[in-house]
Amino acid sequence: MFPSSEVYGGLGSAWDYGPLGVELCNNVKQSWWRWLVYDRDDIEGVDSSIILNRLVWRYSGHEATFHDPLVDCRECKSRMRADKLDGYFPEGGHALVKGEANERLRAGRVKCANCGSTNLTDERYFNMMFRTTLGAASADDDPTALAYLRPETAQGIFINFLNVQTTMRRKIPFGIAQVGKSFRNEITPGNFILRTREFEQMEMEYFVRPDAEHLKMVEEWTELYVEWFKGLGIDGRNLKLHEVPKEELAHYSKRTIDIMYRYFPERPEEERQWEELMGIAYRTDFDLLSHSSKPVDEEGKRLNPDSTEDLSYFDEPTKTRFYPHVIEPAAGVNRTVLAVLMDAYSERTNDKGETRVILKLAPQLAPIKAAILPLAKNKPEIVGMAKAIKRSLQPTLRAVYDDTGGIGKLYARQDEIGTPLCVTVDHQSLEDEAVTVRDRDTWEQERVKVSELTEHLQRRLAR
Ligand code: GAP
Question: pLDDT digits over 212-227, tens only?
C-alpha cells in the first residue's frame, strides 16, 4: 500500500493499494463472497449505488444521528473524538445524560489522548457523512441537490429487500450480502488502514421472523465469523469478543457483539491492544419499517410520508404480514487485510545468518500462488521452458515469472510477499522434464514432473 496522492504531499490517512495489495483485498472479498453467497443456500448478493436518494439517509436515521462528538485540546491543539477519551464515560458504565459530557469536560475529568491535558473544549457534534451535490448546474448549498456518499453499504440492501426477495422467490430466513466502498468523514483517522475516510465493507443483512431468537442468533453469527477469520489464517488468540454496552449501541441496534483483533500488541496495557475488526448487530425491524410507506404513529400519521413502497413480508404458512427483523454481520475489508497481514508476518534466519521476512499468508489469500524462476537467465532453453510453464499455469492459478536476480534473492522476494510455492527450472529440467517446487514456510524442495505440475500445485494450495 502506498500513501495516496504522494506526488502532492499525500492526503491524510488515504492509501492506494498496489499490484499486490489489490490482489490481497480481492482475495479476502472473494473468500467472503464464496463462503456466504456460494457455499450457503440462503444468501443472495447485490451491488447498490454508492450515492442514494438523500431520503434514504433521512429515514435510516443517519442525517440526525450519524455523528461523533469532537473536542479540541487547548494545550496541544489536537482535535479528537471525545467518546474515545479516558474519563468521558462515567464510572459504572451508566449512559450519559444530556449535558453530562460537557460537565465532565469542564470539571477536568477527561484527558487529551495526545498530551494528557484536561484543558479541553466542550464537545460539538459533527455529522460524518460526506456531502456532495447532484447535477452540473446545482449550487453547493442547494438543498434539493444535496446527496451523500454512503457511510455504510447496509442501506443499499434494505431498500432492495423486496426487489431481491420477490425476484429470487426467497422465503425468510434469508440474507443479502454486499461488498463495496463506504465513506465517513472520521474526526481522527489513522493507524495505517485501520481507520480511513474511504474504506470497504462486507455487509450481510440476514432477515428473520419477528419472533426468532435474535439475541442468540447474534452469538451464532459471531461464532461463524470467528471461524471464518481463523480460516483466513488469523490466530484465535488474537481475536476476542466485546459485548457493546447499551449506552454505546448504534441508534438501530438492540445488541452488538464486536469481534476485536489485537492490532497493537506492542502496547503495554492489554486493554489498549484491541480494536474492532467487525461487529454483529441485531438491528430489529428498524430499517425495513423506517423505509416503508405504511407504518403510522398513534395519531394515524404516516411515519414515512416519502416512501412509495411497503417493505413488509407476507408469510405464507402463517398467513401473516410483518417486517422481518435483521441480524447484521458487518465487516471491513481493510481491517481484515490488516489483521491477516499482521498475523502472517514472521521472520526466519537462513544458514548465512541473514534474517528473512516470510509472510505466511493462507494460500487462498496470497496475491501470487506460484513464482516460476529460471536458475540461469542466460540460457534461452531454461528461460523458454520457465516462461512456457508460467503461461500454462496462469489460466488455473496466479503465477509470475521472475529472472531479475540470483535464486536466493528470488526466493527471498517471494517469501516476503507470501507466495506459497516457487517453481525452479534448472539445467536438469531440460533433460528430465521435471522442476523443483519449494515451500515458502519450510523451505523444503520436491522434484515434480512438468506434466503433473498444475495438479500438484493445486493440491498443495488447497491444503
Ligand atoms: N452497517 C453497520 C456498520 O457499518 P460499523 O461497525 O460502523 O457498522 C462495520 O462498521 C465495519 O466497517 C467495522 O467493524 C470496520 O471493520 C469497518 N469500518 C468502519 N469504519 C471504518 C473506517 N473508518 N475505516 C476502516 N474500516 C472501517
Answer: 999 999 999 999 999 9
